[in-house]
Automatic annotation (TrEMBL), chains A, B:
Coiled-coil ranges from the UniProt annotation: none
Organism: Sulfitobacter aestuarii
Pfam family, one: OCD_Mu_crystall
Entries under Gene3D superfamilies matching the protein: NAD(P)-binding Rossmann-like Domain, ornithine cyclodeaminase, domain 1
Protein name as catalogued: Ornithine cyclodeaminase
Entries under InterPro entries matching the protein: NAD(P)-bd_dom_sf, ODC_Mu_crystall, ODC_N
Domain of life: Bacteria
Length: 351, 351
């Protein structure tokens, strides 16, 4: 991959899908999880800020920037639960990586597919550090866009062998089960949430309603379980009953953001939580015993997108799955932007 | 212009230049100024937030979002004064307009050229409302990338007939004078700042050093002058001596941002300033008499970019100066992102 001064590599949705398949979906998930782990290990280095959200009655548009001092990344992402009914994606996203030293973009990419990959990879990283070592069975509550990615990531990275599916919409469960055929996972479709979590070592909730729902109630959750609560990711949107939170040790990405957006918005502002990165560096013990309930209250943080952007950028070193976009004005003399504009007029006249 | 669900119109640098010439540079400046005036008139409607800046030792990368409740826009922009020495632009930018109702992007565009146009258009709007009606002569201090745009915007919109140029680098002045040939402006190149502002009704400063400089000292500025201070736009970067500020009536875009980034960072946090939009709506009188010194402390605000993005979007209704980017994942079933990914694998195998 070569980058001219005035052009920026762009990865379209089609190219992102092809890049993923060239790598293999599970291998891509594992590679991205590796980038996320690497970045979580150097967490204190990053410029961190809660995402910049613009809320409307029907959804939210967010910008999620971060920087490690050498590279700068941000993601544009929307969340519109009602979109599904209109045949649109709930979440679409794109992102950018730039060089801190010059401010010039070095990568523009779709991030709808990429966010699906990185969200699942993040759950897998959390699960790897927090679930019981002998965990083999996972319940997947909510069988929408993110469900297959979650199942495959935990299969590949955490050794999950069985996934138990439940969704209030049986069609979603059918779709998910069909998509997971041939992946090596044992897939069990369940008629109730209760049935899905019976015997599960890991429970992942990923539902999309923008409201305080109660996907899991307290009596459903047994000792020793690890929970990934992925779907509660904005103010007023939670999935778990408060009593489960009170019984769990809670792990988060960035407390300042999670207290606003995550399950813990139901708790007091000073309720103790542990930052996941400190478990990964070994500063804090994650799981202490086999009876403990661990809860990863995942809302998605800018550093995970940064990791995913770095993964794409590195893949493009050996892949041609990109186009070059004429996105940066590059006059011969940088102070002569106007002259560049005038010369374009001459070219138009000559053509 | 038609927009598929999965594609987004993209305006490259080349297409932005061609769109500008199709319209005519001065006409484009006037049209954009019109959009800015319209948006300033409905200022209270907008979601406003100071830009989200990531500073490094050599520059800054910023995201500037805003929304009027129907459309959402943001700009990515860097500011790296040292870039010029490396043959790079000090400022490069791109931006996006999205539909608030769905969160889907409707326009992606280069904004380096567009920012140059909107910055000049904004100065012209401020000058139109604040300068003396009989103003004909303008001093342009700093003859870099922005200078010709400023001169042309004030020529077209405010009736300026003569521009007096000064830059510490005579080559920049030579470049600017050359570029302004044939525009109808009388161009006078000056050897000192003092010479440039002699007899000027309007003084525009636009220099790029990231430091507290003193481009204008107090004794240089006479009664009745209007000043556009454009170059001081980040913490630690100012152009005017504090004493000039003390003698001026100061007009700003968004006080919360300008107090951090503008000339008024030199003043007390409660120093009185007037918001430009209130002058435009007529709520507050701008210029009261011919002796008053008015100062527009312009730092550039997200709403001006929003106006410029709206202008581009509207131009594309009758122009084909765009490409369609495959930027949004659009599965047939919005919950079946994974299925879309699987089908791409089948297509790759079939090809």
């Amino acid at each position: 991959m070569t980058t001219d001064l005035n052009t920026v590599p762009f990865v379209s949705v089609e190219n992102m899908m092809r890049l993923t398949h060239e790598t293999g979906i599970e291998e891509a998930l594992a590679e991205i999880a590796g980038y996320i782990e690497d970045d979580f290990r150097r967490w204190p280095l990053f410029d961190k800020t809660p995402r910049v959200a613009s809320h409307s009655e029907v959804g939210v548009i967010e910008l999620m920037p971060t920087s490690d001092g050498t590279e700068y990344g941000f993601k544009y992402v929307n969340g519109h639960p009602k979109n599904t009914k209109e045949g649109l994606q709930t979440v679409t996203a794109f992102g950018l990586l730039a060089d801190v030293d010059t401010g010039y973009p070095v990568l523009l990419t779709e991030m709808t597919v990429l966010t699906a990959l990185r969200t699942a990879a993040t759950s897998a990283v959390a699960t790897k550090y927090l679930a019981r070592r002998d965990a083999k069975v996972m319940a997947m509550i909510g069988n929408g866009s993110q469900s297959e990615f979650q199942a495959l990531a935990l299969h590949k990275i955490c050794g999950i062998e069985e996934v138990r599916l439940f969704d209030t919409d049986p069609n979603a469960t059918r779709k998910c089960a069909e998509n997971l055929k041939g992946t090596g996972l044992r897939v069990v479709s369940c008629a109730t949430g209760q049935e899905a979590i019976e015997g599960a070592d890991i429970i992942t909730t990923c539902t999309a309603d923008k409201q305080n729902a109660t996907i899991l109630t307290d009596n459903m959750v047994g000792a020793g379980v690890h929970i990934n609560a992925i779907g509660g990711d904005c103010p007023g949107k939670t999935e778990l009953h408060r009593d489960i939170l009170m019984r769990s040790d809670i792990f988060v990405e960035y407390p300042e953001q999670t207290r606003i957006e995550g399950e813990i918005q139901q708790l007091a502002q000073d309720h103790p939580v542990t930052e996941l990165w400190q478990v990964i560096t070994g500063e804090i013990t994650g799981r202490r015993d086999d009876r403990q309930i661990t809860l990863f209250d995942g809302v998605g943080f800018a550093i995970e997108d940064f990791s995913a952007l770095r993964w794409v950028r590195d893949k493009l070193r050996t892949s041609n799955r990109f186009d070059m976009l004429d996105m940066i004005a590059d006059p011969d003399d940088p102070r002569d932007l106007f002259g560049m504009l005038l010369r374009e007029k001459q070219r138009m006249a000559a053509a």
